[in-house]
Specification:
With 271 residues, the protein is an all-alpha fold. The protein is built from ten helices and two strands, in the order H-H-H-H-E-H-E-H-H-H-H-H. Strands 1-2 form a two-stranded parallel ribbon.
């Protein structure tokens, strides 16, 4: 009788732990961005946060959703991808609104798409005025547009094209596995734009340190989850890469803080 009760208890505990882990996977991915969102909203400064982080996550989670149709994995990971895409668009909307509000001069409005009649009218104007809104495909300004709708349009085009490819090649296992690899590898590289931006500025000002700490904790949990739940190989290998990038950003926080403190302590002329 005792062994029956013991088996039932272990089954109950295992079920509860499984549900908690699944819940952590679903909502844990968006939690690190809440401190960054609140910081941007409070300071009205979005310069310290790289929108390419949002691009990496949108691509990664869109590909992961498509990968699910070719090779089913656990539903918590699928739900997490859907919620993460919503969070990334929320971050982009806030950053675009803040940047436009902080712009002192009305510069050329760069967008991803434009009405055909507007494009023709702008092409005929010589030279175009700086206040014109034009369709801009210059790689230098990619993912740096002036309105939120452009980001939605860009991801819509990407989703339609990749969905069409998945529909046509879903029976090809090598293609499905490639999509899965690209999904998790892109997500593993999501911290790289922030890493590069910090290196270029030699500073982590404007970046939420809480966000990076939560990134690291979440990625460690996620990688262990992939291992214990026997997720596809791509998931836990790229999860390990993601943890390594997070650690490098934390090292930047320490190094640049040590570098910036003496300059902040130094008295300025006229003090």
């Amino acid at each position: 009788m005792d062994w029956i009760l013991s088996d039932e208890l272990s089954l109950t505990v295992g079920t509860v732990v499984g549900w908690i882990s699944a819940g952590g996977m679903i909502i844990g991915g968006v939690i690190p961005y809440i401190p960054q969102y609140r910081q941007i909203k409070r300071t009205h400064d979005a310069e310290g946060f790289s929108l390419h982080v949002c691009l990496a996550l949108l691509i990664a989670n869109t590909l992961r959703i498509l990968f699910w149709f070719g090779k089913h994995f656990e539903y918590p990971l699928l739900i997490q991808s859907l919620i993460m895409n919503v969070m990334m668009f929320t971050m982009i909307h806030l950053c675009v609104r803040v940047k436009n509000k902080n712009q002192l001069l009305q510069a050329r409005q760069r967008i991803f798409t434009a009405k055909p009649t507007e494009v023709v009218r702008l092409l005929r104007s010589k030279p175009p005025r700086s206040s014109h809104t034009i369709c801009d495909f210059d790689p230098k300004f990619f993912w740096n547009w002036s309105d939120f709708q452009s980001y939605l349009d860009c991801m819509l085009v990407f989703t339609i094209l990749t969905s069409l490819l998945m529909y046509l090649l879903i029976d090809q296992s090598y293609f499905v596995e490639l999509v899965g690899f690209l999904a998790v590898f892109t997500e593993a590289m999501l911290g790289t734009p922030q890493l590069v931006k910090n290196f270029q500025h030699k500073s982590t000002e404007g970046m939420s340190i809480s966000m990076v700490i939560m990134w690291t904790c979440g990625d460690i949990f996620k990688t262990l989850y992939f291992l214990f739940r026997e997720a596809p190989l791509q998931f836990w290998v790229c999860g390990s890469i993601q943890v390594a990038v997070d650690v490098l950003i934390l090292i930047q926080v320490y190094v640049y803080k040590q570098h910036d403190e003496p300059q902040r302590m130094r008295p300025h002329r006229g003090d």
